[in-house]
C-alpha cells in the first residue's frame, strides 16, 4: 500500500458481469438465444476473457427477484453459486458476488463467502447488497426497513460476518496424528453477536478464510463507509465522484472505486449503438446516477486517466458484454497498461494483495490460550 498522504497512479479495474450487460435491452443484442446467459458456458467465457485481459476483479450482481418482469426475462442463477463455479477455473482475477443482508441469514452468508475464499485460494470478495423493496422482502415474508433500520441492519451483518471470519484462528486446525485431534478448540471462539433483528452464537463451521477477512465492497448509498474495504461511488460527474471519494476516505474507507457505465464504438459508433439499444428496449437507458461514457475507446482511456487522480479503481458496467468487453480487452486495458496506469493481477496473489490491502490480524489471537 502507499504511505498515508501519497497517491500511486495505478487504477484497479473491476468488471460487472451479470447477465448480458447493463443496458435493459442487452440480452436482445448479445448474439445468442434468450436464456443463454444462464448457461455455464456463457459465464465461463466472460470470466475467462476478463481474466485474460487483466481485470483485477469481477463482480456478479444479484437480487431476490429476476432482472425484470418481462416475458423474455432470462432469470438469474444465485451470484454466490456462479462465483463458486468459476473459482476453480481462474487463478488471478478476484470474484465478488452480491449477497443480500436483508434476505440472507448472516451466519449462512458468512459461511458461503468463507467457503468461496477457500475455493478461490484467497481471491473472494463480497459486494454488499441490501434489497429493501416490498417485492424483494416479500420473498421472506418481511416488510421494508426504514432508513435507520436499514443502516443498522447493514452494519450488523457486516460486523457479524467479520467476527465469524475471525472465529477460527489461523492455526486452529492442527491435524495432530498422535492425539487424533483435528483442531485446537482453544483457538475456535464463539461470537455471541446480538443485532437489532438477529443473534449469532458462532463459531463459524468453516476455518478462517485464506485472506483472513474477505474484501468487502459497499455501495456508497448504504452509508457504511467505515465498514468497507472498498466504497463504490455512484455519481454522474467527476466533481461529484471526487467529493464523495474524499468523504469515504475521511470515514475510514481504505479504497474508493467509481461506478462507470459505458457504450463503446465498435464497427458501429457508440451513439448509434445506444440509440438502437433504446429502440429495442422499453425506452432510453434509465439514468442510474452512475458516470456514463458513450464514445470511442480512446476517450474512455482519457476519462480513466482523469479518474485515477481521485479514486483507486473503477467498476465498469458495459452496456452489452458481447460488444463492449472485446473492445475493453483489445484497446482500453492495453492502453492503460502501456501508460503505466494499470497492472494485471498475478497468479497466486490474493484479492487483498492485488488491491494493496494488508491481511488483518485475528481479533481473538492476542487473548487466546494455547493448548498443550
UniProtKB/TrEMBL annotation:
Record flagged with keyword Transport: no
Matches recorded under InterPro entries: Diverse_substr_monoxygenases, Luciferase-like_dom, Luciferase-like_sf
Keyword Electron transport: no
Sequence ranges assigned to domain Luciferase-like in this UniProt record: 34-214
Keywords of the record: Flavoprotein, FMN, Monooxygenase, Oxidoreductase
Pfam families xref list: Bac_luciferase (PF00296)
Protein's name according to its UniProt entry: LLM class flavin-dependent oxidoreductase
Source organism per UniProt: Streptacidiphilus alkalitolerans
Amino acid at each position: 500500500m502507499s504511505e498515508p498522504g501519497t497517491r500511486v497512479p495505478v487504477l484497479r479495474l473491476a468488471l460487472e458481469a451479470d447477465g448480458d450487460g447493463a443496458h435493459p435491452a442487452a440480452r436482445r443484442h448479445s448474439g445468442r438465444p434468450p436464456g443463454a446467459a444462464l448457461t455455464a458456458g456463457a459465464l465461463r467465457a466472460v470470466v475467462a476473457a476478463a481474466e485474460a485481459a487483466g481485470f483485477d476483479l469481477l463482480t456478479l450482481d444479484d437480487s431476490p427477484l429476476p432482472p425484470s418482469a418481462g416475458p423474455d426475462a432470462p432469470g438469474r442463477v444465485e451470484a454466490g453459486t456462479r462465483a463458486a463455479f468459476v473459482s476453480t477455473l481462474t487463478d488471478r482475477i478476484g470474484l465478488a458476488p452480491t449477497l443480500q443482508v436483508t434476505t440472507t441469514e448472516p451466519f449462512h452468508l458468512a459461511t458461503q463467502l468463507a467457503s468461496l475464499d477457500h475455493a478461490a485460494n484467497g481471491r473472494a470478495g463480497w459486494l454488499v447488497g441490501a434489497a429493501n423493496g416490498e417485492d424483494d422482502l416479500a420473498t421472506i415474508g418481511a416488510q421494508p426497513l426504514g432508513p435507520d433500520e436499514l443502516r443498522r441492519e447493514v452494519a450488523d451483518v457486516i460486523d457479524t460476518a467479520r467476527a465469524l471470519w475471525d472465529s477460527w484462528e489461523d492455526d486452529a486446525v492442527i491435524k495432530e496424528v498422535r492425539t487424533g485431534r483435528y483442531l485446537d478448540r482453544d483457538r475456535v471462539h464463539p461470537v455471541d453477536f446480538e443485532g437489532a433483528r438477529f443473534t449469532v452464537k458462532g463459531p463459524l463451521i468453516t476455518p478462517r478464510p485464506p485472506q483472513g477477512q474477505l474484501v468487502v465492497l459497499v455501495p456508497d448509498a448504504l452509508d457504511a463507509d467505515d465498514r468497507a474495504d472498498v466504497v463504490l461511488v455512484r455519481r454522474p460527474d467527476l466533481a461529484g465522484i471526487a467529493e464523495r471519494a474524499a468523504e469515504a476516505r475521511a470515514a475510514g474507507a481504505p479504497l474508493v472505486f467509481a461506478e462507470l457505465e459505458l457504450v463503446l464504438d465498435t464497427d458501429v459508433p457508440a451513439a448509434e449503438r445506444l440509440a438502437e439499444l433504446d429502440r429495442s428496449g422499453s425506452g432510453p437507458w434509465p439514468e442510474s446516477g452512475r458516470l456514463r461514457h458513450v464514445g470511442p475507446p480512446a476517450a474512455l482511456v482519457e476519462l480513466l486517466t482523469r479518474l485515477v487522480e481521485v479514486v483507486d479503481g473503477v467498476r465498469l458496467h458495459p452496456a452489452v458484454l458481447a460488444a463492449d468487453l472485446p473492445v475493453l480487452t483489445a484497446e482500453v486495458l492495453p492502453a492503460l497498461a502501456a501508460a503505466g496506469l494499470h497492472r494485471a493481477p498475478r497468479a497466486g496473489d490474493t484479492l487483498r494483495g492485488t488491491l494493496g490491502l494488508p491481511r488483518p490480524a485475528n481479533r481473538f489471537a492476542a487473548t487466546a490460550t494455547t493448548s498443550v
